[in-house]
Design goal:
Blueprint: H1 9-12, E1 21-31, E2 34-43, E3 47-51, E4 60-65, E5 68-78, E6 81-86, H2 92-101
Antiparallel strand pairs: 1-2, 1-4, 2-3, 3-6, 4-5, 5-6
């Protein structure tokens, strides 16, 4: 059972739950404002970091890439960049397809996942 009183629970708030793969890949971002060409800078099972033209805010979006349409929502934005969280996590098959399509992505290119253990 989780809740505010569970030790370590608050330390996970706002943190990534899965590692991200760094890559540079072109994609299309579809929002209510229109369609934009974007670059996926990194991607994980749950979301992606995008470089995009402009800084128009949006809530919901579709990211078209590698023959997939990934529904999501913006969770943060800076001029020219944004982070989106996917409505549904990517499957292991899609992650495998990413690695096959971009063979330069190696296990060593994953962004580090912080170790929150302490030695006493």
């Amino acid at each position: 059972m989780s809740g505010p009183g569970v030790p370590g629970e608050s330390s996970r708030l706002g943190r990534r739950l899965s590692p991200r793969l760094r890559l540079i890949a072109k994609a299309r971002l579809i929002t209510r404002s229109g369609i934009a060409s974007v670059t996926i800078d990194n991607i994980s099972e749950t979301g992606a970091h995008l470089t995009r033209p402009g800084a128009e805010p949006f809530t919901l979006c579709v990211l078209e890439w590698l023959g997939h349409e990934l529904l999501g929502e913006m969770v943060w934005a800076q001029p020219g960049h944004c982070g989106i969280r996917f409505d549904s996590s990517l499957t292991a098959d899609v992650i495998l397809k990413i690695k096959q399509r971009f063979p330069e992505i190696a296990e060593s290119s994953k962004l580090p996942v912080p170790d929150h253990t302490r030695t006493v």
